[in-house]
Specification:
The chain has 121 residues and is an alpha+beta fold. The protein has two helices and six strands, in the order βββββαβα. The protein has helices at 75-79, 93-107, and strands at 10-12, 23-24, 41-44, 69-70, 72-74, 90-92. It is elongated and about 70 Å long. The N and C termini lie far apart (58 Å).
Length: 121
């Protein structure tokens, strides 16, 4: 399985969770989003508002595919209080960067031009 702890560019969001409930897709269904365990689902996962905004709404907390079921922390992670570490949604820095570049292109926002020192002040 994909465990965020072992993936290089997968990082957890870790912002303050809101009221949105985390979801899991078909292939991740039943897994704890912290340790990948399939046993003893215990506590509902809550994600921050940013991770549930717009096209991200209802997406899988682990891999970002469309969610089909609610995400849970396993009993073990709850007893270790890993469920209190804020938003557990995996954020892939690589794709986040690509998305930003794509958004900029789509919205016509270009990088600010460096001012030519030869130009008068």
């Amino acid at each position: 399985g994909i465990n965020a702890e072992y993936m290089g560019d997968l990082i957890m969001c870790r912002k303050q969770p809101g009221i949105a409930i985390g979801r899991l897709c078909e292939s991740c269904d039943g897994r704890c989003c912290i340790c990948d365990s399939y046993v003893n689902p215990h506590e509902l996962v809550r994600v921050c508002d940013e991770c549930n905004y717009g096209s991200y709404e209802g997406r899988c907390v682990i891999c970002g595919a469309p969610g089909i079921s609610d995400a849970y922390y396993c009993k073990e992670c709850c007893s270790l209080e890993k469920d209190r570490d804020d938003c557990p949604k995996n954020v892939n820095l690589g794709s986040a960067k690509k998305d930003l570049i794509y958004e900029r292109k789509k919205n016509g926002i270009k990088r600010r031009k460096q001012r030519d020192p030869a130009e008068g002040r």
